[in-house]
TrEMBL record:
InterPro entries: DUF998. This is Uncharacterized protein DUF998. The lineage of its organism: Bacteria, Pseudomonadati, Pseudomonadota, Gammaproteobacteria, Halospina. The chain crosses the membrane at residues 50-69, 76-94, 106-127, 134-153. Keywords: Membrane, Transmembrane, Transmembrane helix. Pfam families: DUF998 (PF06197). It comes from Halospina denitrificans.
């Protein structure tokens, strides 16, 4: 069941972010984060927050509980980290430009993102006994976390975020298969 739900989560997120990105003027997915689709005041803010982020967070929560029932603790922690990130993105919109500092909602949004990427990276490292490759993915995720900061001189924040999330989702599917 966790395999089906993890794949469903991907099937929901990938086209959803692609469609919203195409409909959002001046949105460049390699440069801008997924959260910016639901930024405060964005053209499709409500659709991104409540039709993309909220269902994704709820589905990741369900996946986490199912992994927990299977006593697959590292996978449960990874799914819970993803759930927190998406639920916080749904409840607390990021400010335009996804700054580090800003409104109260922006603070909570960034805190949820920090939990997602820090928790996800640590969960991957903790799962090294199931698959040694998870350690490298976890380390990459943690190093990549620094690249998600608006103060990091990179023009490819969106690309880096999508790469880290791809590692998380690949690990969820991998956990569910073994």
């Amino acid at each position: 069941m966790t395999t089906i739900l993890s794949v469903l989560l991907l099937i929901w997120l990938i086209p959803g972010t692609w469609i919203l990105g195409r409909k959002t003027p001046d949105y460049y997915p390699l440069r801008q984060t997924i959260s910016e689709l639901g930024a405060s005041g964005a053209e499709h803010e409500k659709v991104a927050r409540f039709a993309l982020f909220l269902p994704s967070g709820l589905l990741a929560t369900l996946i986490s509980f199912l992994f927990l029932l299977e006593s697959h603790l590292e996978a449960a922690a990874l799914a819970a980290s993803v759930a927190i990130g998406y639920l916080f993105a749904a409840i607390f919109p990021v400010d335009q430009g996804a700054p580090l500092h800003g409104s109260r909602a922006n603070f909570w949004h960034n805190l949820g993102g920090m939990v997602m990427y820090l928790g996800g990276g640590l969960s991957l490292i903790a799962a090294h006994q199931q698959a040694p490759g998870f350690t490298m993915a976890g380390v990459f995720s943690l190093v990549g976390l620094a690249g998600l900061s608006p103060y990091t001189p990179t023009r490819y924040r969106g690309w880096l975020q999508r790469l880290i999330e791809a590692l998380f989702f690949a690990a969820l599917i991998s956990h569910s298969l073994f």
